[in-house]
Amino acid sequence: MLRMISTPIGFFLLLATLRTGNPSPTDKSKDSPSDYPARIERLDPAAEAILPQHPTWHRVAAGFTWVEGPVWIHSGYLMFADIPSNSIRKIDHDEKVSIWLQPSGYRGQEPYGGKEPGSNGMTLDRLGRLTVAGHAARNIMRFESMNPDEKVTILADSYQGKKLNSPNDLVYGPDGSLYFTDPPYGLRTQSDEDPQKELGFNGVYRVPNAVQQKAGAEPKRESLQLLIRDLPRPNGIALSPDSNWLYVSNSEPKKWMRYPVNPDGSLGSGKVFVDATDDQRRGSPDGMKVDTQGNLYASGPGGIWIISSEGKHLATILTEKSTSNVAWGGKDGSVLYATTTDSVLSIQLNVKGVRP
């Protein structure tokens, strides 16, 4: 398919930037907030209703190693995980970054010995409680308040007596159940042969009635439901706005899957929604969210893929580096935040997203 890349500001702005000596958008030393034109692959006319005529990236924060799990908090600020530093961080109204929780994942006394000791994806339940994929902690945890020193509730940590691999991303259903993915990326070797890996597969699970679990209560381990076990690397996860479809990204090989959600919360047979195995650009299917119209915004090769509810690739918002996840924020939910290797970026779009 022909890809048309738009650079709205154009050559003369780039020339002016070079003459003034200001760092370019790809300058790794630029850690302070900055704005620069967004490059877009426009693949379908339907993308024009989604994307502004002159889209702009805003670099909210930078200088990290591998950031993930952005989530917009209702009172008006963003949180994200900085996995290698084993921390969850907060970006306040003035774009000041502070550590909210450290350690956020692995809590052992000995050095972790792996690349990703921290937590990963985050979301909110309908009561506004922060729920975190523990990743190297090998659990799902819910914070009963936005004070990280107060009570934490473990929603899941094992399946049939065996430790989970490393929960990666998660989403709540309208009935209060919680769906999450469990690849091995939070283990020390990130492989299926890791000596600490107890399960013989990488699954997608459902915690029934997770919202109703009492604060501080033990997880209902016997109730955890294994929904999918045949994906090599399940990663990002999202529900359609009507909750009739569950999307799961598979990082290796590069595919997005879609499953019908049954009335009892179980899943029907899945099908490949979009296949990106032939795209050799940097990045793989990872975190994703949906807008109110049902379009999917998925981290993938080259940046953020915008995919219609029919599975048509409408556009790609190109990013400088590998993109791990996205989240909707701002006053009305029309600002898309993205975590891209060492930075947190934002872009204003013409649509509103579905926020937890």
From TrEMBL:
Q: Where is the SMP-30/Gluconolactonase/LRE-like region domain?
A: 67-341
- Does the record carry Hydrolase as a key word? yes
Give the Pfam families listed for this entry: SGL (PF08450)
Q: Does the keyword Coiled coil apply?
A: no
Recorded superkingdom: Bacteria
Q: Name one GO molecular function term.
A: hydrolase activity
Q: Which UniProt keywords apply?
A: Hydrolase
**Known PANTHER family for this protein?**
LACTONASE DRP35, LIPOPROTEIN-RELATED
User: What protein name does the entry list?
Assistant: Gluconolactonase
Q: Which organism is it from?
A: Edaphobacter modestus
